[in-house]
Write a structure and sequence with these properties.
Helix content is about 30%, strand content about 30%. The protein is α/β, with parallel strands linked by helices.
């Protein structure tokens, strides 16, 4: 009998095993494939846990649509400092194709959330659900809940404030872990600039890595304040670390006319933006990257380098137009995909940017 469309009243029961304690829990399952999802999650979570502990990683992706019928991404955040001993999960649902019955997709997602909580040993109130919707210019997550849940996690020994519920993202982009560590390793003695800085995680890596100075630029005062808190958490709150609220393209157009130059620049723009703070302007990384990077190279000191990343999965740099403006691009994407994101090598693009 096909039970794939069964309702809550018709739900069967499956037994799942807590990966941390070995305890068994009986759960109602609305979708017939839920037992397979539970088995797959347990297998990959065991591997990820071993890898994370070996590499002292506290926030990482566990599962990423490994089974087509359970198209969700599951990220784990383990707490440090005042959040020591506390863990949270983000369960993000990829929007199902139109061919999939919405009721079936909803049942699978509800099963996935309950199973993730039980298998990974994280209380349900610390499992945060997000649904993915396709928007112009790229994918976008939409929160199913808006209650904030602040905690602290760490990356490469740096402490970061994250918020599980208030925003579309938590405050740290996990797929850029390797990129941030790379920037930190390049930063000693450098004048560092972070554009589209978000919560300043890359600035922290640069500062802790010994940057002579840092400048963090973002349009959002909320994120700039968050970046300042992250810097302070890591003892990087001296006068050599500055913050500016500005539209990045407008800021760049003004900055290239001045004398400030930088040895290392990190540029991680959004895929698309039509923020109210931008007025009538819109931003598209595919449309606007040539203009952006032509300004960026003009801010580089002799021998300087920029690291440019973006999350548009079909991004294609206009190499000819960039070269005409004196921009040399080197694709380093493959070197920047973390182990826990290897299932999706197109999660982001990453390039070194230099003067041609």
């Amino acid at each position: 009998m096909d039970t794939s469309n069964r309702t809550d009243a018709q739900a069967s029961t499956i037994t799942v095993v807590n990966l941390e304690t070995g305890a068994e829990t009986a759960l109602p399952a609305r979708d017939k494939g839920s037992d397979q999802f539970a088995a797959r999650l347990k297998k990959v979570a065991k591997d990820r846990r071993k890898w994370a502990r070996k590499n002292d990683i506290s926030c990482y992706r566990i599962y990423d649509a490994d089974l087509p019928d359970f198209a969700v991404a599951i990220d784990r955040y383990d707490g440090v400092w005042t959040s020591e001993g506390e863990s949270c999960l983000i369960v993000a649902e990829y929007q199902a194709p139109k061919s999939v019955d919405p009721a079936k997709a909803e049942a699978r997602f509800e099963d996935a959330v309950a199973i993730a909580s039980a298998v990974l040993g994280v209380p349900r109130h610390r499992v945060f659900a997000k649904t993915r919707r396709r928007e112009k210019g790229g994918g976008q997550y939409v929160d199913q809940q808006k209650d904030g849940y602040r905690m602290y996690t760490q990356e490469a020994g740096n402490v970061f404030e994250v918020d599980m519920g208030s925003y579309l993202d938590t405050g740290i982009f996990l797929d850029h872990r390797v990129t941030r560590e790379m920037v930190g390793g390049m930063a000693e003695g450098k004048r560092f600039l972070n554009l589209f800085s978000y919560t300043g995680t890359c600035t922290v890596h640069a500062a802790v890595g010994g940057a002579a100075s840092t400048l963090t630029v973002d349009l959002s005062q909320t994120y700039l304040a968050w970046a300042q808190r992250n810097m302070k958490l890591n003892g990087c709150d001296g006068p050599e670390h500055r913050f500016e609220r500005a539209d990045v393209l407008q800021w760049l157009a003004h900055a290239v006319k001045g004398e400030r130059r930088f040895d290392l620049i990190f540029v991680d723009p959004p895929t698309f933006s039509n923020s109210k703070a931008m007025g009538k302007n819109t931003w598209s990384v595919q449309r606007d990257h040539v203009k952006l990077l032509s300004h960026v190279v003009r801010l580089l000191a002799p021998g300087g380098v920029a690291v440019f990343s973006c999350n548009l999965r079909n991004f294609k740099p206009d190499v000819e137009a960039l070269a005409a403006r004196g921009v040399k691009l080197t694709d380093i994407t493959a070197k920047t995909i973390p182990y826990d994101f290897e299932r999706n090598a197109k999660i982001h693009c990453c390039y070194l940017v230099e003067r041609a």
